[in-house]
């Protein structure tokens, strides 16, 4: 772990790969069509209809599957609230999708008693974003409601041995990749981690939510709350990445070690800590390893002593489902795969490729 001397070198943001090094370089997100994300909702009783003149289902929430290019998920949610005349809180979605991409995802809008106006409202929305499907549903969509996301990603200007890339992809298909949180979570040069380390004891309440007392406190929480939660989450994610990095370096990221917590059904899955009050739920050798890593970042660890957030576990490996790839005539590479919520496409690709994100520096909503 790097020393804590200045923001530029305080936080490691590039972690070891499973193969000891990347086999090629490539350009990512040269255009929105190069990064396509299709949300798979998979909710019981949820039936979308592409015939937008006949909206199926019942309930107070109108659900729309939108296609967007270059727009932030939260920006779209705010705009939908404005267009619908409801509060931003009344808009639901399952997860934040990449901005510099073509993404297809569901939003729910709280519109009780307005089913007769759905067709006209959808026509208004279609002037901003293509509406692919719609339905009525009994409740608001929540984070993590979806089954996962399907990706179609094209990498351009690949520099490296094609046979080595093929071998690395075969290896990825068989064993997966280290399940790191992506660097975007930590902000530019780790700025979110700097802010987490500087947070005062009252920034988060005992349940890991943003703090604040009284009307003035509520107003402050309204402005700063989501940022404080973001910084808190960044600290938790970085500590996980540091533990995973050590397991990768030791060659134990795919193999349970002494003290691995048992999961449902007495099965063992190789996991790392999402830190909470009370430390790690691991025992034995694994607890010593995790505690030793985390103790090197006391400024982050102290955040958790002020909350009652329960320690959790996260798998150390991510295995993309339905992984397939095709080389294009121009030498570019298109990959398709499916990931569960909380898994990152850039993390998987970054285990093989040194990626140059061409979207950095672009400014969109």
Automatic annotation (TrEMBL):
The active site is at 98 (nucleophile). Its EC number is 5.4.99.27. Residues 176-324 form the TRUD domain. SUPFAM superfamilies: Pseudouridine synthase (SSF55120). InterPro entries: PsdUridine_synth_cat_dom_sf (IPR020103), PsdUridine_synth_TruD (IPR001656), PsdUridine_synth_TruD_CS (IPR020119), PsdUridine_synth_TruD_insert (IPR011760), TruD_catalytic (IPR042214), TruD_insert_sf (IPR043165), TruD_pseudoU_synthase (IPR050170). One of its GO terms (biological process) is tRNA pseudouridine synthesis. Residues 210-220 have a biased composition (Basic residues). It comes from the Bacteria. One of its GO terms (cellular component) is cytosol. Residues 1-27, 200-223 are annotated as: Disordered. The keyword Transcription does not apply. It is an enzyme of class 5 (isomerase). Responsible for synthesis of pseudouridine from uracil-13 in transfer RNAs. Belongs to the pseudouridine synthase TruD family. PANTHER family: TRNA PSEUDOURIDINE SYNTHASE D. This is tRNA pseudouridine synthase D. It comes from Marinobacter salinus.
């Amino acid at each position: 772990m790097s020393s804590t001397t200045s923001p530029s070198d305080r936080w490691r943001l590039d972690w070891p790969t499973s193969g000891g090094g990347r086999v090629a370089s490539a350009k990512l997100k040269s255009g929105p069509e190069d990064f396509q994300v299709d949300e798979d909702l998979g909710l019981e009783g949820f039936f979308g209809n592409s015939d937008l003149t006949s909206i199926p289902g019942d309930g107070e929430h109108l659900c729309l599957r939108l296609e967007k290019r270059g727009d932030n998920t939260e920006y779209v949610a705010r705009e939908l609230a404005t267009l619908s005349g409801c509060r931003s809180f009344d808009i639901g979605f399952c997860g934040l999708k990449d901005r510099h991409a073509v993404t297809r995802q569901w939003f729910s809008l709280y519109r009780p008693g307005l089913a007769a106006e759905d067709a006209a409202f959808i026509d208004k929305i279609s002037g901003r974003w293509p509406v692919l499907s719609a339905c009525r549903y009994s409740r608001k969509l929540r984070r993590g409601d979806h089954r996962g996301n399907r990706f179609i990603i094209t990498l351009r200007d690949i520099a490296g041995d094609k046979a080595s890339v093929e071998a690395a992809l075969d290896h990825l298909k068989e064993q997966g990749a280290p399940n790191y949180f992506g660097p975007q979570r930590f902000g530019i040069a780790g700025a979110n981690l700097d802010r987490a380390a500087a947070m005062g004891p009252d920034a988060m309440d005992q349940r890991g939510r943003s703090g604040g007392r009284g009307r003035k406190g509520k107003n402050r929480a309204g402005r700063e709350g989501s940022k404080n939660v973001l910084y808190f989450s960044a600290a938790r994610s970085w500590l996980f990445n540091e533990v995973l990095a050590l397991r990768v370096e030791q060659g134990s990221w795919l193999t349970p070690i002494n003290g691995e917590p048992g999961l449902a059904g007495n099965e063992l899955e190789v996991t790392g800590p999402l830190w909470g009050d009370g430390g790690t739920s691991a025992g034995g050798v694994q607890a010593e390893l995790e505690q030793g890593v985390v103790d090197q970042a006391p400024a982050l660890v102290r955040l958790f002593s002020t909350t009652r957030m329960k320690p959790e576990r996260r798998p150390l490996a991510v295995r993309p489902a339905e992984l397939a790839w095709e080389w294009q005539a121009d030498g570019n590479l298109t990959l398709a795969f499916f990931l569960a919520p909380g898994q990152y496409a850039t993390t998987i690709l970054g285990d093989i490729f040194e990626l140059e994100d061409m979207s950095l520096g672009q400014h969109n909503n």
